[in-house]
Design brief:
mainly alpha, 6 helices, flat, about 120 residues
Length: about 120
Amino acid sequence: MELSIKKRFAKLIISGGELTLKKSMIYFFVLYFLILIFWILAWLLKSDLLDKMEFFNSSFGSLLYWTLSKILIWVLPYIIFFPDKYSKAIDSFKTNDQSWLKWGVLIGGIIAITTT
């Protein structure tokens, strides 16, 4: 017989069970929300302060700012906090069959050309 969520939760409390998350999951969620907060702060910094500077209004300045922001906010924490997963991702690029890479570069180039 399937118990409803309320009954399962009540049974868990009555039986003295614990609702716990693994420490690694807590770290993951904290890191995820910190990344989102820093991304919002980077956007606010760009829209409020840096748009007043001539360099960041140019196409190259904006590209440079957002590329560095993405690397610092999204990629660097992944490399620092999950080094074992990072090495597995790098190993997946070391295959002999790199036709997927050619297709990716081709499609990315087509998108870049048609959107400019």
